[in-house]
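Give me structure tokens for this 92-residue protein.
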Amino acid sequence: MTVDLIVFGLIFLVLGYLIGVKKMTFLLAGFNEQRVRDKDRLGRLVGGAMGALGAIMLMAGLFGAEPAQPLLVGSVIVMLLLVVYVNAKMVE
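Here you go.
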């Protein structure tokens, strides 16, 4: 069991739920509501990605993935790609 993956997984799951389901897009850094074309789609996309990454991290932590660093680096890369996509396709 890897405690850091469990903690990060829970944080990502909670943020994914708040952003994706509850539409609390103000939790996104640099979010400007006037520039985004579809606020609901943004919430679903970012919240879904964070929820999926959180579930993967949580499972890996519970089932003892060692070392945790490659998974965390992969998560950062996925989030950076998501930022690029959102800025290219969803922001005016």
